[in-house]
From TrEMBL:
Source organism of this protein record: Ramalina farinacea
Protein name stated in the entry: Xylanolytic transcriptional activator regulatory domain-containing protein
Keywords, comma-separated and alphabetical: Nucleus
InterPro entries: XnlR_reg_dom
Keyword Nucleus set for record: yes
């Protein structure tokens, strides 16, 4: 495979997610324009609704336009500040295209330390052997390096990165940029020849791109991984492959001893087990991603006729080809995917249009309530049937850490409790807000079971984070999807804070619920941590005693829990810049605002894109015609003559479908508002370019 072309600094998206002071210092002299587009988020999303998102497009400086060398991402460089790789210490090997061995082996160690327990379709010894034999794909190794670099000691790259001016330190996630861009340059040849390595690489690339503050990349690359897996037929049973594993039942729940303690794993057996786990990993990631975006999972259970991974599969992949099986004290892989299968069904139900009540009949409402109850009952029954060593608890988590399966352990339990909370909350909505006026009101006794279940799941999420912080918190930093549970639990405690204030006869003021009002508790159990001095929490608008009488004991508990969970999201944002916007959403949620304005959220983060692709030779005219709005005109009303719609007078959410029945539009309004919306002014300067793959939310 030919070496990837190298990139200049103006091809790196610079998206600082650190403090505002740092952002201002780095970007104050960098011209940019704000561009908007719309994204749809469903009921389970962090920010539900059809939301306008803002991204910032910066103008490249002439001094950074050279394409002669690869430049790592840094902060937005000014005309006099360009961060480059050290010319005397190349980061990549010219022959193999891989990182230098001194860096590569450390990156692999870090990857399997932070991710290997979760991406259990990879085997470290087998991967190292392939690298030494020159058979490892550059794409996969580049993605692995991009994920690992954010957790490496920054001093490891001191010889390869030129220092920034003014003693500015790079954020941890920024060290991943050279590896991420090399991986992205290999996407086209990778998808041209589908392989299981390509599936694994695309799945990992989704998280690496999210770490570079590209939430859209998380969705796009996960979808590409799923499509490639389907192209390879990983979701279909292939008897000619499975039949090679003669002598034992592959679908059984037996342990590793089924193959015999002296058995040596053959390559075809290893590949089959790895492919089964890879397919279900793609399935689980797609489900969790749809949970966070409020969309329906792309891969349905009825489309898969491949068995769930067994303990044997996990043991085989962990040992690797040519090695003997290794027994583990606990094997979480089969149970994690069993739970995610049920989670996927719940997500599909909650996020389908049919599940969103809008004037439904009594029969439809009762049928929907019955489906919610069936989903919840099935999930609870499956969860309670988990083996004792898999159930949640501090000792079991410690055992999972020792077995190298802490990530799978937290993912299993947090995804389960998050879905149970969603289903319980949906039932509460049925009982309260959607109660028909002609039916007698339901009592608090009727609501209590669902309310208790909801509170129990929220508390379980908080307890899991507490235990992880006390024993080993690496999964909470490295696994992106865990922040979904932390976010929704934090929102629950935020509502508790607001309700407690209102029950005391006053309305919550913005300053009362601001982050500065709640000191961050220590890394111990939030259920047992409260501000030791109430004056730290209470604002000096009244006497300390008066404020104490206003806020109840439960409100103080909710505050401590809220800040504890929010701090976990902030900690993850140091390594994944994309998690910064999740934390920013909480700024609005904590004041009781349900309908979050993502424009405010995205504007608060230093998110920059380049306007590049629209200026590529041979494609600029078509691209400009696609994105430039039509001439100004008024919005059509039903029955009126044709007119032109523009970005200035068109709001998709406010216009009913009947508006367009008699109109002959010269553009597709739906496509218009789901694509990037530009004005001609944004194309007047040739320095603006667009690279959609790097658009961040």
């Amino acid at each position: 495979m030919s070496r990837p072309r190298e990139y200049s600094s103006n091809e790196y998206m610079t998206k600082p997610a650190s403090a505002a002071e740092s952002t201002n210092r780095r970007t104050s002299d960098t011209p940019y324009k704000t561009v908007h587009y719309y994204r749809h988020h469903g009921p389970t999303a962090i920010a539900p609704g059809h939301k306008q998102v803002s991204v910032k497009a910066r103008q490249d400086n002439d001094e950074t336009s050279s394409r002669d060398q690869m430049i790592p991402v840094s902060n937005i460089p000014s005309s006099k500040q360009t961060s480059t790789l050290s010319a005397s210490h190349p980061l990549f090997d010219d022959d193999s295209g891989l990182p230098q061995p001194a860096v590569l082996w450390q990156l692999l160690d870090i990857f399997f330390e932070y991710y290997g327990n979760f991406y259990c379709f990879l085997n470290k010894r087998h991967l190292i052997q392939r690298i030494k034999e020159g058979k490892a794909p550059v794409f996969l190794i580049s993605v692995i390096s991009a994920l690992s670099a954010r957790f490496c000691d920054p001093g490891m790259f001191s010889s390869y990165f030129s220092p920034l001016e003014d003693c500015v330190e790079r954020d941890r996630w920024e060290f991943s940029a050279p590896f991420l861009e090399r991986a992205k340059s290999l996407i086209v040849p990778t998808i041209s020849l589908p392989t299981t390595d390509g599936v694994a690489g695309l799945l990992l690339l989704a998280f690496a791109d999210f770490g570079d503050n590209n939430e859209a990349g998380l969705w796009m690359f996960t979808g590409m991984a799923l499509r490639m897996a389907q192209e390879l037929g990983l979701q279909r049973h292939r008897g000619d492959v499975s039949d090679r594993r003669a002598g034992h039942t592959i679908a059984s729940e037996g342990d590793a001893s089924t193959l015999g303690s002296s058995a040596t794993i053959e390559m075809d057996v290893f590949k089959e087990s790895s492919e089964v786990i890879l397919l279900w990993s793609v399935f689980a990631h797609d489900s969790a991603l749809c949970n966070g975006t409020g969309r329906v999972p792309s891969l349905k259970r009825h489309e898969i006729n491949v068995r769930l991974p067994t303990k044997i599969d996990a043991a085989i992949v962990r040992a690797g080809p040519g090695n003997r099986l290794e027994s583990a004290s606990v094997e979480l892989v089969p149970y994690m995917f069993s739970i995610m299968l049920l989670v996927s069904q719940s997500i599909e139900f909650l996020n389908t249009a049919a599940s969103q009540i809008s004037g439904h009949s009594h029969v439809e409402e009762e049928d929907r309530a019955s489906r919610i109850e069936n989903l919840r009952t099935t999930m609870l029954r499956t969860y309670r049937a988990l083996p004792r060593e898999v159930s949640f608890g501090a000792n079991n988590y410690r055992a999972a850490v020792n077995a190298g399966q802490a990530g799978s352990y937290l993912f299993l339990h947090l995804q389960f409790h998050l879905q149970v909370a969603f289903l319980a909350q949906e039932s509460l909505s049925e009982l309260a807000e959607l109660q028909p006026p002609d039916r007698p009101p339901r009592t608090k006794t009727t609501k209590k079971p669902q309310f208790d279940l909801y509170k129990s799941s929220i508390k379980a999420i908080t307890d899991m984070l507490t235990i992880a912080k006390l024993i080993d918190d690496r999964p909470t930093l490295s696994l992106v999807y865990l922040n979904q549970a932390f976010f929704h639990a934090a929102c629950a405690y935020s509502r508790d804070m607001i309700e407690e204030v209102r029950e005391m006869g006053s309305s919550p003021q913005e300053e009362e619920l601001s982050p500065s009002a709640f000191p961050i508790p220590s890394q111990t159990s939030p259920s047992m941590v409260f501000p030791q001095d109430s004056k730290q929490v209470l604002q000096p608008k009244a006497s300390a005693e008066a404020r104490k009488s206003t806020f109840s004991f439960l409100a103080l508990t909710a505050r401590a829990n809220y800040q504890f969970l929010r701090q976990a999201i902030k900690d993850q944002a140091r390594f994944y810049a994309g998690s910064g916007w999740v934390d920013a959403v909480l700024d609005q949620r904590e004041t009781g605002l349900r309908d979050v304005d993502l424009t405010i959220v995205s504007d608060s983060i230093g998110t920059f894109i380049r306007l590049h692709d629209l200026r590529e030779p041979g494609g600029s005219e078509a691209a400009l015609q696609k994105f430039v709005p039509p001439a100004p005109g008024d919005i059509l009303q039903p029955g009126e003559d044709q007119g032109n719609l523009t970005i200035d007078n068109f709001n998709w959410d406010e216009i009913p479908p009947s508006t367009f029945q008699n109109a002959e539009l010269n553009f597709d309004p739906q496509a218009f508002f789901t694509d990037y919306m530009y004005t001609e002014e944004q194309f007047s300067n040739n320095g603006y370019e667009l690279e959609p793959s790097n658009m961040l939310v």
